[in-house]
Amino acid sequence: MICGTRSRCGRYKAVRRAENRCGAHMVALATYMGHVNIYATYWYLEATADLVRDIAVAGEAFMSDGRRA
Length: 69
Hints:
By secondary structure, the protein is mainly α. The protein has helices at about 1-35, 40-65.
């Protein structure tokens, strides 16, 4: 039992450290991008996947038959 508890505590501590680093990285990214509000940076991270997908679809359509999407 004690061994399992220590293992869980170790994993919990590792997750907490990773979360702390993530927060620090978000602040650094927001600062680098010139955002005063972290929500603006979060929007970019959320929107990037959609934007890249749309760009890929348009690029593939253009390259396959020269048409615009």
